[in-house]
Amino acid sequence: MIRINLISEALPEAHREPVRLEALGRGAMLAACFVLALGWLGFDYFRTEHSLATARYQVALQQVQLARLRQLQEQVTTFERQKVAIDQHIDVIAKLESDRQSSQRLLGSIATTVNRTPMLWLTGFTRKGGDLTIEGRAASIDAVADFIGRLRQSGEFARVRMKSTDQQPNSSVPTFAFTLTADYRANVIAAKPVGGG
């Protein structure tokens, strides 16, 4: 008889080695370290990007502020130039005003002195700085001497000198033409009231 074995031979079981927990623990530990490292790098990247963005924003603010300060500095420079120009104009105006007042005082002083000297009138007057040249006519040489004395007594004129005197023949009354030089002391007259005698 023939025997047919329908049952196949028992196959040997696959031989598996038992999985060791140590190997799994190490793999899990490596994976966890890798994930932690990636997490730390990601956190550091985003933190650095945030710091960089903040620094860029601060730089942009500083540049805007620097541009504004430069503009203000240009305005200050312009204002300082304008101030210097205005100060110069004010100085010129003050000098002109001082010269005008000084000239008014000078003319007032001379007019007062001429009014107090009888028989004398002026025909010309020149001023260059503090140097004066006075030209006039008088009915007598005594009137000229009196005028010189009054100029000296006023204290407003220094070194009053007779430059020339000529007798002018006239049909009815002889007159004397004279030319005087004097130094005008504006600082003395500034302290004295005009017309004070």
Question: Main attributes?
Answer:
four-stranded antiparallel beta sheet; Gyrase A, domain 2; 197 residues; disordered C terminus; 59% helix; 4 strands; 3 helices; alpha+beta; rod-shaped; 20% strand
Principal-axis shape: rod-shaped
The largest sheet, given as strand count, sense and whether it forms a barrel, is: 4 strands, antiparallel
Which range does the strand content fall in? 15-25%
Number of domains: 1
In CATH terms, the superfamily is: General secretion pathway protein M, EpsM
Strand order of the biggest β-sheet: 1-2-4-3
Query: Can you tell me the CATH class?
Result: Alpha Beta
What's the total number of strands?
4
What does this structure look like?
This protein is α+β, with helices and mostly antiparallel strands and 197 residues long. It has a single domain, classed as Gyrase A, domain 2, CATH 3.30.1360.100. Helix content is 59%, strand content 20%. It contains three helices and four strands, in the order αββαββα. The protein has a four-stranded antiparallel beta sheet with strand order 1-2-4-3, covered by helices on one side. The protein is rod-shaped, with a radius of gyration of 57 Å. The model is unreliable at 188-197 (pLDDT under 50).
Short recap of the structure:
By secondary structure, the protein is of the alpha+beta class. The chain has helices at residues 21-116, 141-154, 186-191, and strands spanning 120-128, 131-138, 157-168, 175-184.
